[in-house]
Structures are given as structure tokens and as C-alpha cells.
Amino acid sequence: MIYFDNSATTKIDSSVLDTYNKVSKAYFGNPSSLHDLGETTTGLLTQSRKLIANLIGVKEGEIYFTSGGTEGDNWVIKGTAFEKAAYGKHLITSEIEHPAVKESIKQLQRMGWEVTYLPVDKNGVVSVKELKAALREETVLVSVMAVNNETGSIQPIDAIGTVLKDYPSVHFHVDAVQAVGKVDFRIGENSRVDMAVFSGHKFHGPRGTGFVYVKQGRKLESLMSGGGQETGQRSGTENVPGIVAMAKALKIAMEQQSEKQGKMRKLMDSLRQYLSSLDFVTIFTPEESAPHILCFGIKGIKGEVTVHALEKEGIFVSTTSACSSKKQAESSTLTAMGIPKSVAETAIRVSLTDLNTQEEMNRFVDTFNTIYQSFKVIQ
Predict the structure, then answer these.
(1) What's the pLDDT tens digit per position in 54-83?
(2) What whole-number distance in Å separates Cα of residue 256 and Cα of residue 258?
(3) Residue in 111, 113, 106 with CA at minimum distance from that of residue 138
(4) How many angstroms separate the CA atoms of 104 and 98, rounded?
(5) Of 71, 91, 227, 318, which has the fewest Cβ atoms less than 10 A away?
(6) Which segments in the chain show pLDDT lower than 50?
(7) Residue 292 lies in a domain
(8) Pair (249, 271) in one structural domain
(9) How many angstroms separate the CA atoms of 367 and 33, rounded?
């Protein structure tokens, strides 16, 4: 089996799974309990929070644990809107955001918030100039992802942050789910990013884990009421084994990042070079993109047909994002990039981690070439 669908989810690292199992068996106390077992699990949470904060360059008290990217995006967007409604009800986002962002904003739009959707260019990148022009006195949130999950396009987060330094009351939210271990995304003390969302299962951690960075001094309305966990921001008994395992996975993901990124880039460059030689293949991912994603399609062949043809040969890829592939909908990202619907419907996405090998890529190319030649006959 060759697994090239890592932007949908990654296989949990074996050492991370060992940590998860160890904590589940030995440290099963509720962190809210007063006895020693509860205090021990509280200590594990504190250690994990500190490790994650150090890895991304922020303060320990700025990390909040969640169930993953969808919850994190929902909390930041709706929490900002509800907290700052008295100051303004205007939100800015892009046309290529993940459904967790897009649907949260659409829900607020139905509730009376105004939204500006920033277009993207042919490379799937927002214009900083257009973002600046969209800012109003009543703007309370700008939400732009770090790396697009369908094409791998990298958004100008630092440049947006520079613009927003003149708008200190506007929350700046970044969906960083596809960034960890793939691009150099470390927030640091001087970053203008106010909130960033991460998901454990995208970097070989367990599913159902995630964390949100919230800059000290920024206020969000809580969406999860109850026992007051996470300093009252996210109630619910903490998933201690998952959190400890996620912290370990993040540490592994951020070790030797440049070497890992270089390995993925080399594999993708070889694939891009091969695909560029094929007359009936369109490559949608821009040259300057994250190293782990390549989106392309065969002229006249719907993406799901190519996906299933590869699957029969033991190779697993996806159409676009996992959240929309089963709906058999064309990529909203590609449409926003100006690609016609009939062409966008051909898209498939290959997505790697540093664990993928050149041997796997060679087999993929050989298999795809056979499939391509069979489809070429009907062109």
C-alpha cells in the first residue's frame, strides 16, 4: 500500500501511540480531581502545554487544548464575533478557506454579521493590498489560512500581519493545520497573529486532539460551558493521553524540519517534472507552494475516477479536501483561482509526509503512467 493522502490524516507515529497507551493505562485520573492521581495528570497537562508553547515560540498560558482543527476554527471565529459584537460586526476572510472556517463565517453571516470574501489570484494567493482596502472601522476579525489544504498555496501571513499592526483591535486568526512540519510556521513573541489553530492528526498525532494559540490579552467568548477547564475557555474533561501524545508528535514533527521539508520537496519536484511532460495533465498547485501537496488532473477525467483507478493498484490519494471529496463537489479553491468547473472536476491531490519514500514515488509514477495511457485513448 502507498498512502499519499496525508493532508486528510496521517498515520499515528508508533512512539506517539506508545505514549498514548502508557498514559491511558497508568495516568487515568481526572485532572480536576484533588487526589494524587488527579494531580499527576494535571502535571502531565502542564508539561505538554509548556512543550507545545516552547515549540511554537509562545507563552505557556497562551495554549488551549481542543478536539482538533474544526473545533478550534469554530471557537476562534465565533468566539471573536460574540466577544466583539458591540465594537463591530464585520469579518474578513478568503474564498479558499477550509470548511471549518467558511461554514462558521456563513453561520455568523446568517446571524447578521457582514463578511468580505477576499479573492485569490491564479496561484491561489490573497492580495494584501485588497485585504487592506477591505478593512473598516467595524472590522473585528481577519481569518486567513497559512497553507491551503487543496493546492498547498502559501498565504502571505507576515505581510498581512504587517498591515494589521495599524489595526490593533482586529483579531488575526490563522488556520495553521496544514503548516506544521511542512513550512516554517513558528509564531514567536513579535508575531501579529492573535490566534492560530492546530490539529494533532495532521502531524502523526492521535485523532481528536488539537490546540489553539490565543495571544495574551485577546478575549474570546467561550463556546463550551461546564466545569471550567482550560481556565474557563474550553470546558470538558481533558483528553490527557491524547494531549501528551500530541505534544510528543509535535516535537517529532518540528525536529530537523528543513531536512524533512527538503525530502518532500525533492519527491514532489520529481512528480511535477514527470506530470509536466504529459499533454493531457493540468497542474493546479503553483510552483511556490508548500512541499507536501500537489494538485493536478487528467483532461476530461473526473477526479474520483482517477482516485479509484489508483486505489485498485493499492495507491491512496484524494480528490481535493477530505471534507468535500465524498460530496463529489468541485474544488472551491480551484474555482476561486479562475479554473473552469469542468477542469476543476478533474482534480486529484497527492499529499506527503517526510515518511514517504522515493521508491513509493517511483511506483506511483509507473502506475499513474499506465492509467494515463489508458485514459489518453479517449481524449
Answers:
(1) 999 999 999 999 999 999 999 999 999 999
(2) 6
(3) 113
(4) 10
(5) 227
(6) 325
(7) yes
(8) no
(9) 56
Same domain, 241 and 272: no
Q: How far is CA 126 from CA 97, 160, 184, 191, 204, in A?
A: 11, 10, 19, 19, 29
Catalytic residues: 323
What is the extent of the structural domain holding 182?
A: 14-253
Angle at 326 between CA 289 and CA 10, to 5 degrees: 50
Does the residue 220 lie in any domain?
yes
Count of structural domains within the chain: 2
Q: State how far the Cα of 364 lies from the Cα of 359, in Å rounded to an integer.
A: 9
Q: Is the pTM of this model over 0.90?
A: yes
Residue 171 lies in a domain: yes
- The pLDDT assigned to 329 comes to 55
Q: How many of the other CB atoms lie within 10 Å of CB of 346?
A: 26
- Work out the burial of residue 159: count CB atoms within 10 Å of its CB; fewer than 13 is exposed, 13-18 middle, 19 or more buried: middle
Task: Please provide the size of the chain in residues.
Answer: 379
Domain assignment of residue 326, yes or no = yes
Contacts of 133 (CB under 8 A, 6+ apart): none
